[in-house]
Structures are given as C-alpha cells and as structure tokens.
Amino acid sequence: MPPLPSELAYVPFVSVEHMMGLVHHLGIERVLIDLADEIETDFRRWDLFDKTPRVASHSDVGVIELMPTSDGETYGFKYVNGHPKNTKEGLQTVTAFGLLADVNSGYPKLLSEMTLLTALRTAATSAMAARHLAPEGARTMAMIGNGAQSEFQCLAFKAICGIDTVRLYDIDPAATARCAANLAGRGLTVVPCRSSEESMEGAEIITTCTADKQYATILTDNMVGSGVHINAIGGDCPGKTELHRDILLRSDIFVEYPPQTRIEGEIQQLDGDHPVTELWQVIAGKAEGRRNARQITLFDSVGFAIEDFSALRYVLKAIQGTPFFTRLDMIADPDDPRDLFGMFVRGGPGTNA
Q1: Contact 42, 49 (CB under 8 A)
Q2: What CATH class is the domain 7-116+307-346?
Q3: Running DSSP on this structure, what letter comes out for residue 193?
Q4: pTM for the model
Q5: Predicted pLDDT of residue 8
Q6: What is the CATH number of domain 125-303?
Q7: Identical fold at 7-116+307-346 and 125-303?
Q8: Per the CB 3.0–4.6 Å rule, which of 12, 22, 162, 164 could disulfide with 325?
Q9: What residues does each domain of the chain span?
Q10: DSSP H or E run through 278
Q11: Dist CA 196 CA 145 (whole Å)
Q12: Structural contact between residues 113 and 106, judged by C-beta atoms closer than 8 angstroms
C-alpha cells in the first residue's frame, strides 16, 4: 500500500451539493444576512486588501475572468465566466469556483463551488449597499430581468432591507412566471408586470439584472423619478450597460472599485473623471450616502474580488462541524520537503508502505 497522505495534504472542498445542503441547513435568508454582514465587515477594512481589476479574457461570445485579492493573511481568488448565449444552449450564463489560501505558507485552505455562492454574495452585496443608500422605509422593488439572479436579489432585499413587494418584468414572460413561482410562499407580494414601465409603479428601489452582452437601455430617463435607489448589476463588462446615460447624470453614483467599474460598469458611458463615491467610504463613515428624500442613488455594481473573499471566508467558517464538505487529497506533502521524487516513487503501484 502506498503511504497515506498527511493531514496537510487535505483541503476542504465544498461541492454544489454541499453548498445547497449548507444553505438549506442554515436557511437562505440567514445566509444572505450573514454574507451581507461579512462583506460589510471587509469593506470597513478596505485599506488592508490588495486591489486590482479582474484579469479578463474576452471572446466574441463571453468572458472568462480571474478575481484575486489578499488581506495579508489570507489570499483568495475566483474563476468566473459570463456567456450570455449559454442559456439558449441549456447552459448557465455564469459558472464559478474559488479558493482561499494561507499567505504565510501558500497552502490552500478551501476549494469551493461558486456558481451558487456568487449568486448569493451578489444579492447580499446589493442589499448591503441598499442598506446605506436606499430611501428610508422602502418596501417595494422593481426587479427587471428575471433570470438566474432574480430570486436571490428579491430574497436578499426582503431579509436585509425589509422589502415586502417585488414587481417583476422580463422580456421573456416565462422567466417572470418562473421567478414568481419560485418566490411563492416566501413572504413577498409578487406582482408580474407586462412592461418595464409597469414595474416602476410605486417602486422605491429598482434592480436591473439583464444578461445581453451589449449596450442596452433597460431604463430610460423618463422612467426614473426622484428619490429612488437604483441597483444596477447587469452591466459587468466593456460594452455592456443597461441605463440611459441621462440617468447617470442625474444620480449620485456609488461603486466598488473605480478602476474596474470605469471599464465594466454603467459609468463606462461617462467621462473618465466623472465623480463617483466608493461604497466602502460610505460604510466607513468617510463619505455621505443618501442625503435627502429626493436624491437618486445608483449602485453601479460589477462585482469585486473582496466580496468573493468574504463569501469564501464565511463558507470556511460555516462548514466547520458539518458534513457539507469533502476532504480532498490535493497537496503533495512529503515527509522530507526536498524529496518530492522519493514520495512519488514510494507511492507507485506495487510499493509497500
């Protein structure tokens, strides 16, 4: 028998099945609340993190990206793709996995699926931002774009911001019907709408989340009244936007990391020096968020690596003492670190321990 791996060789792995089990075990709304708190905690220590725009490989049909960061003690990265054409082929638009590692040794600490986790952390980040930017007492949200992210957004705004009514619209009525069915019985009043204009009626928060990889105008200027909060999460790569430029010019704009958002977000439509406020500054009390009831606030969210770092760290803590992970023999760890070849030879077929 070849020698057994050492304890240092094993890395906890959270599969899709494990992630679903963990979220069901804890409750999806609790997970969304916990993720929002974890992300907000890391935004408060923003200065400690390495920050870089994601490394993107674009093609005619989509993008593949790496999103790395470190707080000096733990390193994390996410692999993620965005391929809008996938839906028509029966595939997910977004898939992802991620890893945490110990900065001191470089050894991995966690490997996890992040297709589900990205949906959860995106929704948690949206609602966490709205907690600081949305009008006080907001109860109704328009959800434009009823794809894979929509239910997560609705539940996050319910759990974190107190939303009790969602008005749904998608150019595909079947998507709206599916979203409404999935939200049934979850404590929300769900109103399917026949147009984006209809979805605006009474909405104090507007979330746009569409998938087409192109400049688009999901919201026109005349659709947006004073006092609303816009959560724009569909624009996330060069050449892909959702809002008319005039809406941006009327709004106070809040972003995660300007060097990335100016390339990928709604503000790619504006001059490179157009003023924006970094969300972490609002959370840390260094900048103003919502100042008055008539102000239009816009969270131009493209997703940033620190949010994934926070989500992975939360999962690493949450799986402790649960069955929702597998130990992978992932790291070669010979008794003598200089004798990797000797370990290889001793582990071959027909060798004895």
Answers
A1: yes
A2: alpha beta
A3: -
A4: 0.93
A5: 81
A6: 3.40.50.720
A7: no
A8: 12
A9: 7-116+307-346, 125-303
A10: strand 277-278
A11: 9
A12: no
Is 236 among the residues known to form the active site? yes
The pLDDT, as a whole number, for residue 9 is 85
Pairing of strands 140-144, 205-208: parallel
Report pLDDT for 353: 45
The Cα 326–Cα 304 span in angstroms is: 27
Using one digit for the tens of pLDDT, what is the confidence trace for 128-183?
999 999 999 999 999 999 999 999 999 999 999 999 999 999 999 999 999 999 99
Per the structure block, which two tokens stand in for 331? 């790291």
The residues pairing with 65 across neighbouring beta strands, listed in sequence order, are 56, 80
Chain length of the chain: 353
Q: Which of 170, 236, 300, 308 is catalytic?
A: 236
Within the chain, how many helices (H) and strands (E) appear? 11, 17
Q: How do 241-243 and 215-219 pair as beta strands? A: parallel
Please report the pLDDT score of residue 90 as a whole number: 92
Strands (E), 103-223: 108-113, 140-144, 165-169, 189-192, 205-208, 215-219
